[in-house]
């Protein structure tokens, strides 16, 4: 996305990406990873993953949701299935942990800062 800065000078290109929160929505089986409904991590400014101090997030649950996050950060066509689907399941069949991806805001990043 580009624009003008009001003075007629071309503005620096900026990329907008959604900031996300991935929340443990529910556990339908036996919890073995130590997560509980409400536990979460955030992804901001395109690539900054944060977990609350003293908390953890299961590596296998994280691996299940990571491939979807870059797509969920972009503007999607309303007809795209990913625009409507927000739930992701951990691959552990005994645990049946279900996470929800939420959009919490938008980061505007100078395009040259991204790779």
UniProtKB/TrEMBL annotation:
Q: Which organism is it from?
A: Actinocatenispora comari
Upper lineage:
Bacteria, Bacillati, Actinomycetota, Actinomycetes, Micromonosporales
Q: Which InterPro entries match?
A: CHP04076
User: Which protein, by its recorded name, is this?
Assistant: TIGR04076 family protein
């Amino acid at each position: 996305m580009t624009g003008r800065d009001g003075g007629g000078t071309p503005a620096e290109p900026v990329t907008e990406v959604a900031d996300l929160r991935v929340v443990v929505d529910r556990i339908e089986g036996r919890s073995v990873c130590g997560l509980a409904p409400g536990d979460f991590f955030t992804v901001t400014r395109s690539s900054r993953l944060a977990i609350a101090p003293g908390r953890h997030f299961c590596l296998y649950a994280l691996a299940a949701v990571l491939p979807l996050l870059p797509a969920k950060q972009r503007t999607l066509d309303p007809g795209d299935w990913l625009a409507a689907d927000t739930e992701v399941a951990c691959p552990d069949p005994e645990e049946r942990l279900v996470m929800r991806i939420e959009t919490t805001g938008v980061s505007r990043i100078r395009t040259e800062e991204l790779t």
